[in-house]
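Run log // design_07
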């Protein structure tokens, strides 16, 4: 399997949204388990629609620094990078790999590519955020494997 990474095009957005929603379904299921149905429904009444909107927005607003991993002509993953020239930092804003293509090195390739692009843009720091819930365990492993250092944070919720 040959993985190619290229700049996202407008024609890729629907495929990227679709693979993202498939990739993140276990994450949102984990959120519901951790938070309980009541709080989960208040925060994510329709996660599919809100995530589709968020991915589309990131792809549109950060198109030049959003890359797609393809196998053949098929988008199988993506990464979006935001570079802050003012403080010479950057952040991997979003990253997803289609579940049927996970555990094949695609996330590693996308992370490495984004880090190199950040370095080339003059950034001295790359950050990435993820959850501490069980659904994000694969993401945490990938980021730690890529050399990122975690700063544990906790966010609490209470239904009113």
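design_07 sequence
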């Amino acid at each position: 399997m040959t993985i190619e990474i290229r700049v996202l095009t407008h024609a890729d957005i629907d495929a990227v949204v679709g693979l993202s929603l498939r990739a993140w379904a276990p994450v949102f299921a984990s959120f519901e388990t951790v938070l309980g149905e009541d709080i989960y429904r208040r925060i994510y009444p329709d996660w599919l629609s809100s995530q589709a909107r968020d991915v589309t927005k990131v792809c549109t607003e950060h198109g030049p620094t959003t890359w797609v991993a393809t196998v053949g002509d098929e988008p199988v993953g993506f990464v979006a990078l935001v570079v802050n020239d003012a403080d010479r930092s950057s952040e991997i804003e979003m990253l997803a790999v289609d579940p049927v293509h996970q555990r094949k090195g695609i996330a590693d390739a996308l992370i490495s590519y984004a880090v190199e692009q950040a370095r080339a843009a003059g950034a001295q720091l790359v950050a990435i955020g993820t959850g501490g819930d069980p659904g994000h365990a694969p993401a945490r492993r990938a980021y730690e494997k890529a050399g990122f250092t975690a700063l544990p944070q906790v966010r609490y919720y209470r239904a009113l």
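The domain at 3-145 is CATH 3.40.630.30 (Aminopeptidase).
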